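Repro:
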Amino acid sequence: MMTHYKLRPAAPGELGDNVVMDPSVHPPRIDHAHLEIDSWFGDELIESYPCLFISDDLAKTLESSRLGHYELRSVEVSLSEDLPDEERASVPHLHWLVLTGQAGQDDIGATSTGRMVVSDQALEILRQHNIDHCDVIEYAGE
């Protein structure tokens, strides 16, 4: 049986004013993602609950892996005026990572509360990139 892991990516910002969200369901349904970044430390997998975002480089790696069970969508990104110039310059192009798989069954999936769960194989692929501030916890179900 394959081991799965729950990931808790770092959150270098929050959902911005232009997010279109339905909070009547849990996790909230997002129709338009807007991320406002107020700090940057280089991770290529980040979150602002309930959304996940990945760098362009990580997106290319995922697409070439053929893991499946996710969609890449566009995201509106704003950089806080308080973000230092050197951090501002290092923010990569980001994609909104929408999870479509089942936690604990698919290589990439989501729990009923919207948390990311990945297989050994998917974690190995993610670790080819900077996910240094992401907590990785063995997943034992909900």
